[in-house]
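Quick one, tokens below. Sequence please?
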């Protein structure tokens, strides 16, 4: 992970929507890296990644992570959930809010505690049988 060199005060001034924006990219990069090996055809690789970065999968991952989260992380989730104002028509608002809150958490941890982020990634139950 990159050293962002932001103070805790600077991170707190960043909006939860911005944490989610960053967290979306961090999460997708993790998922892409997870499915990288063994090598596979690009269409299969794409299908595996898309299946995990969908809001429904993110909401499922959030539910599996919640028992492992600290009070601070739960507060970040709450702030991220409240940052989700609009949502795609194909999704119910609750699923979209859960996905956004997970992305916000991942963005926040990327900036504040990359080791903890990696620890949470290790809790994710990703389907590796298709790899």
């Amino acid at each position: 992970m990159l050293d962002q060199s932001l103070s805790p005060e600077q991170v707190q001034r960043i909006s939860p929507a911005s944490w989610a924006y960053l967290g979306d990219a961090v999460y997708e990069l993790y998922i892409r890296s997870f499915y990288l090996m063994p090598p596979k055809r690009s269409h299969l690789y794409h299908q595996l990644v898309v299946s995990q970065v969908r809001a429904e999968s993110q909401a499922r991952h959030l539910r599996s992570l919640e028992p492992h989260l600290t009070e601070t992380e739960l507060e970040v989730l709450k702030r991220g959930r409240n940052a989700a104002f609009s949502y795609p028509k194909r999704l119910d608002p609750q699923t979209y809010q859960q996905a956004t809150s997970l992305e916000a958490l991942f963005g926040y941890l990327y900036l504040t505690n990359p080791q903890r982020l990696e620890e949470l990634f290790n809790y994710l139950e990703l389907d590796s049988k298709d790899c």
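The two ends are 24 Å apart (CA to CA). Helices lie at 8-13, 16-34, 42-53, 55-65, 71-82, 93-112, 114-123.
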